[in-house]
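The records we work with from here on pair a chain with its fold. Here is one such record, which you should read through line by line:
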Amino acid sequence: MKRNEKRIIVGLTGASGIIYGIRLLEVLRDLGIETDLVMTDMAAKMFEIETSRTETEVTALATRVHDSYDFTSPLASGGFRNSGMVVIPCSMKTIAGISCGFADNLLLRAADCTLKERRPLVLVPRETPLNVIHLKNMVTLAEAGAVILPASPGFYHGPKAIGDLVDHIAGKVLDVLEIEHHLYRRWKENTL
């Protein structure tokens, strides 16, 4: 990876809101940013449940795809050079696994490596309501350096369609990763 290039690990889990992850992959591809995709088994089922996309269509959006049980993947090593990781959507099971260091699949191991190497880790939970266990796990992760970015789109940019709301969350993720984009109109002071 060259000095000014970005390479982002994208994790997809079985939480509702898989469209957020798909849209992020589309935008990163369109921006020419390399992506390494790893997803849980349930994420693949969510394509069928929540979208008209096939697993093949979604994986084609990534630069590289890694099997979630392949611990020989470069993603399993802290030495794998990348610019950070996003888990979008992030299930509460995945948040719990990352929170307690239970890396029993490649997605969890890649997140663990991201934290230990002090790279940006953005987790986009899509669950409501939250119980105290969820909240404690998220506090633990925030204290460890992760960014908790709930899939709670704003409305100040005047969304007209569901895609506008999805773009708002994808844009917020890109903001955290310091990647320029034009997915939504930014907040501006009201002029009277």
